[in-house]
Amino acid sequence: MNVKSFLKLVEIQTKVASVIPFAFGTLYAYYHFREFHPLPFALMLLSLLAFDMATTAINNYMDYKKAVKTSGYGYESHNAVVRYQLSERSVIAAIAALLLVAAAAGIVLVLNSDILVLLLGGISFLVGILYSFGPVPISRMPLGELFSGGFMGFLLLFITVFIQTDSGQLAALDLSALWDGIVSLRLNLVEIIAVCFVSAPMVAGIANIMLANNICDMDDDLENRRYTLPQYIGKRNSLLLFRALYYVSYVDVIALALLGVPLYLLLIIAATLVPLNRNLRAFDRQQLKAVTFSLSVKTFLILSAARLVVLVLAILIQG
């Protein structure tokens, strides 16, 4: 396996979907709490990228193993295992190495932060593996959008903010009385609700990337026994959900305003409604993987970039 085939196996271009919530969470923590710690930042970025690449490689490997229809829709070019004729041994070795790096960086991160990171990170690892692996992977169920948006959009952002803040500002897990059967979890509901609101565009954008992919693949997924959400609710309802998620995600503007972001900066976010509506109309007209699926990725990048720019400018104004 060379560098080119490895990058295709892990679909390196898709890692932006995890890096953006991480970047936003870091900026949010600095703007709202005035805190930034380089070591946790570096450790989480390493663990995050390694694990994201591992789960993508697992997904491609499992698609290769479970494929029923292996021609006619780009399978030979889109699946790296087939395209580069990768041996199963090399693919499994790459996955194992990535998981090892992710776990090692994660353990060091826990040692430099809080035990709660171990719990949340462990759950994320488990869901990431089950997303593509197991008798019925999450990606082959009508839960893919919920899990991808919820974990990559919200939980990832929450952990990012958590590792940059002092213990207890968001949550605190106390295991000092564990031997007596007592575990104490304290939650700062106001701050957690704030994170929920500001993460809304990430949750919706990432969920919609998967939803757009599943809408475009409805016929092929049925042949390959992938029973995704559009298979259950139909194409029309899937398109309505696709549109609704984007509009609901603008609820973050309220939270950012309450956190003190100047209203004139929030006009940058409002301006994204123009390209959003244009992309929605184009996707409504045609749902083809090679033609319009990329609109969901472009929309996610536009909406996310606006939020990142707003936070950077707010930090600069804050001084």
Keywords:
mainly alpha; 319 residues; 73% helix; 16 helices; single chain; two-stranded antiparallel sheet
Structural overview:
Helices cover 73% and strands 3% of the residues. It has 319 residues and is mainly α. The chain has a two-stranded antiparallel sheet with strand order 1-2. It is built from 16 helices and two strands. It is globular, with a radius of gyration of 20 Å. The model has no long low-confidence stretch (mean pLDDT 88).
Question: Strand-residue fraction?
Answer: under 5%
How many helical elements?
16
The largest sheet is: 2 strands, antiparallel
Average pLDDT, rounded to a whole number, is 88
What distance separates the N and C termini? 48 Å
Shape: globular
Radius of gyration: 20 Å
Uncertain runs: none
Please give a quick description of this structure.
This protein is mainly alpha-helical and about 325 residues long. The protein has 16 helices and two strands.
Set down the secondary structure blueprint.
Layout: H1 3-9, H2 16-33, H3 38-66, H4 75-78, H5 80-83, H6 88-111, H7 115-132, H8 144-164, E1 171-174, E2 184-187, H9 189-198, H10 200-216, H11 218-223, H12 229-248, H13 252-258, H14 263-271, H15 273-285, H16 294-318
Antiparallel strand pairs: 1-2
Helix pairs in contact: 2-3, 2-8, 2-16, 3-6, 3-7, 6-7, 7-8, 8-10, 10-12, 10-16, 14-16, 15-16
